[in-house]
Design brief:
The complex is a heterodimer of chains A (about 600) and B (about 550). Chain A has 19 helices and twelve strands. Chain A has helices at about 10-20, 30-60, 70-115, 120, 125-135, 140-165, 170-180, 180-215, 220-225, 230-280, 290-335, 400-405, 430-435, 450-455, 460-470, 475-480, 500-510, 530-540, 555-560, and strands at about 360-365, 375-385, 390, 415-420, 420, 435-440, 445-450, 490, 515-520, 545-550, 560-565, 570-575. Chain A is elongated and about 115 Å long. Chain B is built from 16 helices and twelve strands. At the A-B interface, helix 2, helix 3, helix 4, helix 5 and helix 8 of A face helix 2, helix 3, helix 4, helix 6 and helix 7 of B.
């Protein structure tokens, strides 16, 4: 990874790991329980294996009747029950800890995205961002719920088992002590490859989410152009790429498991051979004869010594996946977001004295978000309080850009002041209560028409919403719907025509009480008659307020106090179209 | 489990590979079982034989080594083959799902949202990977090995055999099905919450500037938080069920082991079996329960997989919006279009079109005017069969459009709809959707007619400039013109334009409309607009009023 900060890959990886581990801080008690339960269960296993070996020894060597073995058998049963309970406690605690971490992460990431300027989100594929929050966050479950307990168990239990076996048989105990630490060395070697493969895998996954979101958005268009089959193949192809990359990650994971199992098998076979040879008298390393109980105990413990390591190998790709997800988050955010920083709560608004706002734009230059092009260059504009201005210009010339800059939705150089106060110095809450901005492609959110209108003013009651809907000519179509304003509309206003969706967004305006109103092509999708009705509502509403609107409609421009035109990156005064121009629109030429 | 049955066809296509994976998984489990059994038997035998007495050491020890190697190799390949086959199945499922969507879009009337759809194609299909890998495969191999162990036990110690059979059936069949049943509710809830969460994220990202401008960011966060918590709650329940499953499997496995031992001890003291055999059997029983743990651990995932499968299948099971005719006619040459007594309502009792009669001759340009929401878009949608009219007929080239294949209709008629997007890709990629065979010159010509050529020329990489999602690097008007160019590039002889100039400034709009005749030379054009039409732009114009067309003079 190439970054301009001069940090090495290793430093970056370490910082990302720290960030990842930092997420776990909030759930320490649960995480501790998740780690402790397998450890205690492991220790109890020693007793269980010892007792089981004892039962078999006494039955086979001592010919003890089974009734006499009942207490030992009950003890084994008891230990099994306790261990099952520990399994329950551990798994549940680990899962819940991971769940809490994911909950916080998703919320934190979403909040981070919303804190960015809107140009930041606009420059990123929404499918990929959604994939990061919904799918990538999921990968942390494996890391916190399984990998973390597994690595602690792998560090501690093999040693504990070896120590437990030592008093029973020194040779076997030493064998365990010596072979167990070798395994992590092999694992680390394999793990290096796993990380690179995981990273490529996560990238493929993010790309796939972005592609799906994009193609599904335009699936009707693709269908009508007969491109559906080609796109289905493209999706299969992208999916196959993902398969190949996933498989590469898994191959490494499986190989590391196989290597581990090989060593575990060697260990178990070594113990079996040693115990067997000792019984047969072919090997004599002990001072006292080896009992059947001791031999069986060693044999029962042998696979268990390697089991925590094998489980670690199984969950090792959970670590790689979590690291890759972290790297992906870092890549999308250009650095890892600090999720603990809560936005500073702004001071409660004092009661605002409504006054029409003056806007002064001085020497403002605005470039495209990727800085490749200058949209507006060193423009100046003064809008008097209560003045109504129309901004004209070809599409793509920068009208929306100008309005967005005034609404502080876009970065610029130069100075914009509202009532003499620099735009940058106004608090967010204050700014939003003073400025109302309705964009050119306003978003309708998942909910009913009424809920969407209510966004203009969260405390608005049904009556106020209805009134706003009437003003924006929403009721003209909503009244024909069975559920009226309570009709459910999808994200993005699915089910409404362009003009209908725009009017719903416009209705939000009438619920607000701003000093300054910024409207971007408020009547673009409307027919003349509806335009006239909507504009008369806008004109009535903007009395005593400052209004800046971008438009292509001469009829609309004619109703304003002043008209400016954008051309070639500059702002020029323009004659106001004569009101009689409106008469042209009555019929068709 | 019925929700998963539709996956059968995909399994069948890869039957050989899945059977191979299953075979390997049985070998792995059998080798493990035999390994522990032989080791226990061998050690006890050696201990009983004692020093100095001849004992065949090399047979059993070779067997132990052979079995452990066999287990390692078969497990490696089992996992590899199983995962490969599963992932290729998922790829095929994605393609299948996308193809199933085609005849069913637009989906807005079915109430399925974009974010939800993305979830179906990604997360839901991913959730199905557990079906074979962690459920079907382990259960089948556990049953196979369990049967053999039961048979051996039943021959030697019938009571122990019975106890084992019961214990094994409980742990590999009864408990997992209880878990699956219990996990169904939470699985369903988490799958739905996850899709809802994705919709909230899309809302937040795509409506970001609106949220900022409205000061509604806290609202968006609250909406997100409530779905987020619902997701977490559902997942929490699933975790609880999984943990309960693991613990109860452990208890049943332990109890079975003890009962088998109890009967075994009886058989031992009765002299029916030898000590080494008892130990060997006991260890083998212990080994078979290894897989039971895995089955229980993933049974909970199967609940989510079922919910996902239901959602995936839902779309293909729904009625297509329109159907191809059973015996399609070929579409004859000709570019004329006619609407005959066409009636349509979006919902019962709300007629949008109430008897539309319109005849457009080949090469004619006709405008449909009328207030927004009057049904202009509906008319054009009907012509492309995005939905079918309730009554009346629509014909192209004198042929009822319901009698020809949709593909043929779509080759003949191209539509610029109001919500057509700019796709993730370059300017060229976007244009070529209209005509994959178009060359450089064709692209520029289309851009020129759409009045976008001068803008694209100043872009640093021209036609190969990468456009962000939904063309957000373009202004609304530029995006519209790119989509217009795409339609003009298509070889379709009939062109339907729905508000082609929305978002365009008046001058550009007027010059495009003035040029319309030249741009669409020879093609039939139906244009729905509320723009002011310059002289000669169209041959005729109609006003759409109260569901009927009225000729404008």
């Amino acid at each position: 990874m190439e970054t301009g900060t001069g940090k090495t890959d290793r430093e970056i990886a370490r910082a990302q790991m720290r960030w990842l581990m930092g997420l776990g801080k909030t759930v320490r008690p649960l995480a501790l329980l998740a780690v402790a339960a397998p450890l205690v269960s492991g220790l109890l296993l020693i007793g269980q294996a010892y007792l089981l070996a004892q039962v078999l020894h006494e039955a086979i060597m001592g010919h003890t009747p089974r009734v006499a073995l009942v207490p030992s058998l009950l003890a084994v049963g008891g230990l099994m029950t306790v261990r099952a309970m520990l399994t329950f406690l551990g798994e549940n605690a680990g899962g819940r800890a991971a769940e809490k971490i994911k909950l916080g992460l998703r919320e934190g990431l979403f909040a981070q995205i919303l804190q960015k300027p809107s140009s930041w989100t606009a420059a990123r594929p929404s499918g990929a961002l959604a994939g990061m929050i919904v799918d990538q966050a999921e990968t942390l479950e494996g890391f916190f719920a399984r990998y973390m307990p597994a690595i602690i168990a792998a560090a501690f239990l093999p040693l504990a088992f070896a120590v437990a076996v030592l008093p029973v048989d020194v040779t076997v105990g030493l064998l365990f002590l010596l072979t167990a630490p070798l395994i992590p060395v092999f694992m680390a070697l394999i793990g290096l490859g796993a990380e690179a493969a995981s990273k490529r895998h996560v990238q493929a996954l993010t790309r796939l989410s972005g592609l799906f979101a994009d193609r599904l958005r335009g699936i009707v268009t693709l269908k009508l152009f007969g491109r559906a089959e080609a796109e289905a193949e493209l999706i299969e192809e992208a999916s196959e790429t993902l398969r190949k990359r996933t498989l590469r990650v898994l191959k490494i994971a499986f190989l590391s498991s196989a290597v581990l199992e090989f060593f575990a098998a060697l260990g178990v076979a070594g113990v079996a051979l040693y115990v067997g040879l000792t019984y047969l008298g072919l090997l004599d390393l002990r001072a006292s004869p080896l009992t059947l109980q001791a031999g069986l105990f060693c044999l029962l413990m042998a696979p268990e010594v390697y089991l925590p390591l094998r489980q670690l190998a199984v969950h090792y790709h959970d670590r790689a996946a979590a690291k890759a997800a972290t790297a992906e988050i870092a890549a999308l955010f250009e650095g890892l977001p600090d999720l603990n920083v809560k936005p500073v709560p702004e001071a409660l608004q004092s009661v605002r004295h409504h006054q029409p706002g003056a806007i002064v734009i001085a020497d403002v230059t605005i470039r495209t978000p990727d800085l490749s092009r200058t949209v507006l260059e060193r423009i100046d504009l003064t809008v008097a309080p209560g003045e109504r201005i129309a901004v004209l210009g070809e599409s793509g010339i920068g009208k929306s850009t100008l309005l967005e800059a005034i609404a502080r939705l876009r970065t610029f150089s130069g100075e914009i002041t509202l009532n003499g106060q620099s735009l940058a110095s106004i608090t967010e809450a204050d700014l939003r209560s003073r400025i109302a901005f309705i964009g050119q492609r306003p978003r309708l959110f998942h909910g009913t028409i009424a809920e969407n209108i209510r966004l203009g003013h969260p405390d608005a009651n049904a009556e106020e919403i209805r009134k706003a809907a009437v003003q924006a000519c929403v009721t003209e179509f909503s009244d024909a719907l069975a559920q009226g304003l309570d009709t459910f509309i999808g994200e993005g206003g699915l089910g409404l025509s362009g003009g209908e969706a725009h009017r719903v967004a416009l209705a939000r305006l009438f619920l607000r009480d701003p000093d300054i109103v910024l409207l971007d092509e408020p009547t673009a999708h409307l027919d003349r008659a509806t335009e006239t009705r909507v504009m008369s509502a806008v004109n009535a509403f903007s009395k005593g307020r400052t209004l800046v609107l971008a438009t292509h409609s001469m009829t609309v421009a004619a109703q304003m106090d002043r008209v400016v035109r954008i051309a070639g990156g500059s702002l020029l005064p323009s004659p106001r179209p004569r009101n009689s121009a409106a008469s042209q629109h009555k019929g068709i030429a | 489990m019925s929700a998963l049955l539709f996956l059968r066809q995909f399994f069948m296509q890869r039957l050989g590979v899945f059977l191979a994976a299953l075979g390997l998984s049985i070998i792995t489990l059998a080798a493990g079982t035999a390994l522990l059994g032989v080791s226990g038997w061998f050690l006890t035998g050696a201990a009983l034989t004692g020093a100095g007495i001849a004992f065949n050491l090399f047979g059993p020890s070779a067997l132990v080594r052979g079995l452990s190697m066999l287990r390692i190799v078969s497990r490696y390949f089992e996992k590899l083959i199983g995962h490969d086959a599963t992932l290729s199945l998922l790829s095929a499922l994605r393609g299948w799902q996308f193809r199933a969507l085609i005849p069913r879009v637009p989906l807005s009337r079915k109430g399925i949202r974009h974010g939800d759809l993305v979830s179906r194609l990604t997360a839901d299909i991913d959730a199905l990977d557990t079906v074979f890998l962690t459920a079907v495969g382990p259960i089948l191999s556990a049953l196979a090995v369990g049967c053999v162990v039961t048979a051996v036990l039943a021959t030697l110690v019938p009571t122990a055999g019975l106890a084992y059979a019961i214990g094994f059936i409980v742990t590999t069949l009864v408990l997992p099905s209880l878990l699956v049943t219990a996990a169904r509710g939470p699985g369903d809830a988490s799958t739905k919450a996850s899709a809802a969460l994705r919709m909230r994220v899309f809302d937040g990202i795509e409506g970001h500037s609106d949220l900022l401008a409205l000061g509604a960011v806290p609202w968006a966060k609250e909406e997100f938080a409530s779905v987020n918590q619902a997701l977490s709650r559902a997942k929490g329940k699933r975790i609880l069920i999984n943990a309960l499953g693991s613990a109860s499997t452990q208890i049943f496995a332990g109890a079975t082991l003890l009962v088998v031992l109890w009967f075994g001890l009886d058989a031992l003291s009765a002299g029916k079996i030898e000590g080494p055999l008892l130990v060997g059997l006991l260890f083998a029983v212990l080994a078979t329960f290894e897989v039971a743990g895995a089955v229980a651990r993933y049974a909970g995932h199967l609940g989510a997989a079922q919910a996902a499968a239901r959602r995936v299948r839902e779309i293909s099971a729904s009625e297509p919006t329109v159907r191809d005719p059973g015996v399609p006619r070929s579409l004859p040459r000709g570019n004329d279009v006619s609407f005959d007594k066409v009636r349509f309502s979006h919902e019962p009792g709300r007629l949008v079109l109430n008897g539309i009669d319109l005849r457009v001759e080949s090469g004619e340009r006709v405008a449909i005017l009328g207030p927004s929401g009057s049904g202009k878009s509906t008319m054009l949608g009907l012509l492309l069969r995005l939905m079918d009219a309730d009554n009346g007929t629509i014909s192209v080239a004198g042929t009822h459009i319901r009698e020809v294949p949709q593909a043929a209709l779509h080759r003949r008629v191209a539509l610029l709809s109001q919500n057509t997007p700019v796709f993730l890709g370059t300017v060229r990629d976007n244009l070529l959707i209209g005509d994959p065979g178009a060359d450089e010159a064709d692209c520029w010509r289309a851009l020129e007619v759409a009045r976008l050529d001068s803008f694209v020329r100043i872009l640093p990489e021209g036609l190969d400039t990468w456009l962000g999602e939904s063309g957000r690097t373009l202004s609304a008007g530029q995006a519209r013109r790119l989509c217009l160019a795409r339609v003009l590039l298509s070889p379709a002889a009939v062109i339907a334009l729905d508000e082609p100039t929305s978002g365009l400034d008046r001058e550009t709009e007027q010059s495009f409309l003035t040029d319309l005749a030249h741009a669409t030379a020879g093609r039939t054009v139906l244009i729905a607009t509320h723009a002011q039409l310059p002289e000669g732009a169209v041959d005729r114009a109609y006003q759409l009023e109260a569901g009927r067309l009225v000729a404008c003079q």
